[in-house]
Amino acid sequence: MRYFSHLRPCTTTTHATMPPSTLPTNSPITTLPNFSPKPTSLNDAFQSLTHFFTHPSFPTSNFPLQQAYSQALDLCASHKALSQGQQLHARFLKTQNSFDTVFLNTKFVHMYAKCGSFLDAEKLFDEMTERTIFTWNAMLGASVSSGRYFEAIELYKEMRVLGVSLDAFTFPLVLKGCGALNERRLGCEIHGLAVKCGFGAFVFVCNALIAMYAKCGDLGGARMLFDSALVEKEDPVSWNSIISAHASEGQCFEALSLFRSMQEVGVEVNSYTFVSALQACEDPTFIKMGRGIHAVILKSNHFTDVYVSNALVAMYAKCGKMEDAERVFKSMIYKDCVSWNTLLSGMVQNDLYSDALNYFRDMLDSGQKPDQVSVLNMIAASGRAGNLLTGMEVHAYAIRNGIDSNMHIGNTLIDMYGKCCCVKYMGNIFEYMPQKDLVSWTTIIAGYAQNECHLEALNLSRRVHLERMEVDPMMIGSILMACSGLKSEKLIKEIHGYVLKKGLADILIQNAIVNVYGDVALIDYARHVFESINSKDIVSWTSMITCCVHNGLPIEALELFHTLKKTNIEPDSITFVSLLSAAAALSSLKKGREIHGFLIRKGFLLEGPIANSLVDMYARCGTVENAKNIFNYAKQKDLMLWTSMINANGMHGCGQDAIDLFNKMTDGNVLPDHITFLALLYACSHSGLVVEGKRLFELMKYEYQLEPWPEHYACLVDLLGRSNSLEEAHHFVKNMPIEPSAEVWCALLGACRIHSNKELGEVVAKKLLQLNTENSGNYVLVSNTFAADGRWNDVEEVRLRMKGVGLKKKPGCSWIEVKNKIHTFMARDKSHPQSDEIYLKLDQLTKVLKEKGGYEAQTKLVFHDVCEEEKTQMLYGHSERLALGYGLLVTPKGTSLRITKNLRICDDCHAFFKIASEVSQRTLVVRDASRFHHFERGLCSCGDFW
Angle of helix 758-770 relative to helix 776-788, nearest 10 degrees? Predict the structure, then answer.
């Protein structure tokens, strides 16, 4: 604290500025000679005091001893040596006689404030029976420096009530509190008082006023004061204040313009100027200007200043230029804790989590002790990287250093354990936190929801409601996620109602509600909420498009995209991933290519999720070569991309190619996961690679230590069944380490029906019915098995059972894309405008196939108790044949036709398409519910193995 006794309250006399070290003139310091050199270290100061107490020739009541205390307290304050300061205070209380106790007590208040011990300062201040303006200023400084701005304002009000005479140094302290609390009105009143008391023209008061107006969001007021005649334009502090004010408010261009003007008028810039200017460059738009300032710094003598270097690191980090940030950091001669924290924060913000963890270890090795900010960054990095072990190590460090009880640390730990799927630890951290805020509750609810502990999330949300806490959009989003996970339409509607009632329906919440309604298949509700959003953003559009895709409405999704293109909203990568899924679902190659072209024109990198979606789209649209091109073009091949390409090969019957890809992937040290092996087993199953499939299943279990899912067992059973190894398949199912799922029994039953094993089929059908599955396809398979044996009573019983549980047979549906339009056909459909022509075309084709290709309808595949003629007509009316008839009718000769079907193609249609491809001399591509069939010259790519 600086003391100026020559300044008197409410005086209009103007004084020249005095040196900061000036002491009150009413002190006897100036009346006695300097008895000894001023101590420069705490040891010297304490030795000086000891000298007084051990040499009786110096009476303890005279001035030199008081000066020794004063100098020692100044050193304690500058070195933040609290324990030594407390020792001095204890000695002073024992020895005080005729000292100027007000003066020294003020010094003690100042020392406690500088050492961060606000409570000690406050206690001493309250015990003082006599106070000077310096005492009040010291206490104000203690309140402000400890962030207790409200207490500072209250202290100022008490001074006014008691009639304490203010001096110029009171105003900056109180104005800082006003700025921190956004108390502009009080700040204006204090401004008026400063002018009235004659302190308004003081440079440091003007600078404090500029900072206060800026903090309160009144940049106009700050700029008006700066431009007034009161401010000395040669004072760099004034320029620094106004530049910092604009930078803090995000007005970067204005801040940099002021910086340039400051240079033009010849005001000498200092470290604070550079720090403020660099803060204005913390936006990629101004990176060029930031580099220019960096060059100026290197030419000046400020490049060694740690504050300037820290600002450079922060500027480069905020602009995403982490290589430059690291270069500056490594060139720093001296690094403080802020230097390390700035770099670590930049690493975390730029998703360089592993690098952040490595630098944290370097920080420890350098001897720099991490503080709370360092620990927060490392916990966050561990969570986002999914590195549980490192996160626990940092947690242990926080416990050892006594900062684990900090609320911000606790909140970040909850988030870290949630992201690392460690739900038990996450819950324990929350329950044992001494203090919790809204962020704590929001984070724990999100953690439970993201880890599929939906009931726990909802129970906590009820506790929030009981404690009458105000919820925010983030918490509502997590609660909605939990409701979606439970597939609870009722709860989602209740939350929606609560949001409307409380007026919380901002765009974030509305977008989340669209998503969850889509998750529970309430597409009309989702559409209603989407249409009610006044200012839709790209998230709104993407949410609605994704809802349509996930609910089997790909055409509506593409129509929404067409509408989106008419707005000024630019699609993002997530939008395109959903659109590619829509094109893939429709097998719409033309739409897929359009979206691919759009991606290229808009400059999107064909990497990551976009590359995965393109590979999947081209594969599902029947062009595996295009999928390979995208795969080969991608520079960064992650596990998902490898898996997508393996699946693409399996889908098209290229099982060996899928295995070759897997070998290349593992040679490149990319570890497979459950999905990868599922795609591999699927590929083997559809290519008849029995030996390879069994080997891969063993490899998964024993080399990669991946416990098979029910889907993996079903794939292997399907593989064995298709190869007519039914006994081996049945033995495998009976000896499974887990209870066979419906998918497993279904795969075995399908194989029994294909290979006409009635005895085993009977056993498997009963097993399947005992599971009470809710999949209508399983009941249909059992029904068809009974129908193939002519057991119509059993067929009727199965159908009644389906009806009793509210299930219906999924109707066959096929579609074909012609001239950028999707044409859809149901079995025996006559709703198409050209229906008569289509049936006529099919009749003509069927006659030709019978005459030239020897086609005969396989009526045994019709599982209805009707006459042969009616069975034949049923086969002729299958949806894929109607799509074929339309394609032959409206496309030129030789054009390849691509047809998609929602169910598996039957044996009869498979034979029909093989002959049709030869007779029509066309390539016919059919994608059914299981795989692709490329019919060409009378052959199928599946080799009749599907």
Answer: 150
